[in-house]
C-alpha cells in the first residue's frame, strides 16, 4: 500500500504533464493563426456577400475569385472547377497562395507604416 502511494506521489511530481503546463506559443504560430483567421474571414465574407446569389454547390469559383483574384488566376483560370467539383490538391494550393498573399500584404503594410 505504501509503495502505491509513493509511486503515485512520484508520478504527480515528475510525470509527463509537468512540461505541458508552462508551454507558450511562439510569435510565428500566433502570426500564422492570425493569417489563417483573416483568410477564413475573407472566405466567409465572400460566401455571404459577393457570392450569396449563387447556390453553394456552384459558388466555389466565385468564392475563390473573390478571396484572391491573383491566386484564382494562377491556380484555377486554366481549368476552372466544374459545378460541385472538389479538387483537394488545387484547394490546398489555393489556400497556401491566399495565405502567402495575406502575409505579404501584412508585411508591406508594416514596411509602409515603418517608413512613415
Protein model, in words:
The protein is an all-alpha fold and 116 residues long. It has one domain (26-115). The protein has helices at 2-14, 17-21, 27-50, 60-67, 69-75, 88-115. The longest helix is centred in the C-terminal third of the chain and has 28 residues, at 88-115. The relative contact order is 0.09. Pfam families: DUF4787 (PF16029). InterPro entries: DUF4787. Residues 1-15 form the signal peptide. Keywords: Signal.
List the helices and strands and how they pair.
Elements: H1 2-14, H2 17-21, H3 27-50, H4 60-67, H5 69-75, H6 88-115
Helix pairs in contact: 3-4, 3-6, 4-5
Largest sheet: none
Quote the beta fraction.
under 5%
Helix amount, in percent? over 70%
Distance between the termini: 71 Å
Query: Could you say how many structural domains there are in total?
Result: 1
Keywords: Signal
Signal peptide: 1-15
Pfam family, one: DUF4787
InterPro entries: DUF4787
Question: Any descriptors?
Answer:
mainly alpha, 116 residues
Give a short overview:
This protein has six helices and no strands. With 116 residues, it is mostly helical.
Amino acid at each position: 500500500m505504501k509503495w502505491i502511494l509513493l509511486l503515485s506521489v512520484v508520478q504527480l511530481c515528475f510525470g509527463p504533464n509537468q512540461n505541458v503546463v508552462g508551454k507558450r506559443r511562439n510569435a510565428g504560430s500566433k502570426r500564422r493563426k492570425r493569417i489563417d483567421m483573416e483568410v477564413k474571414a475573407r472566405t466567409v465574407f465572400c460566401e455571404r456577400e459577393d457570392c450569396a446569389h449563387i447556390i453553394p454547390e456552384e459558388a466555389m469559383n466565385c468564392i475563390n475569385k473573390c478571396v484572391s483574384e491573383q491566386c484564382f488566376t494562377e491556380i484555377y483560370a486554366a481549368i476552372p472547377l466544374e459545378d460541385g467539383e472538389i479538387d483537394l490538391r488545387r484547394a490546398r494550393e489555393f489556400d497556401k497562395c491566399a495565405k502567402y498573399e495575406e502575409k505579404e500584404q501584412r508585411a508591406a503594410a508594416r514596411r509602409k507604416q515603418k517608413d512613415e
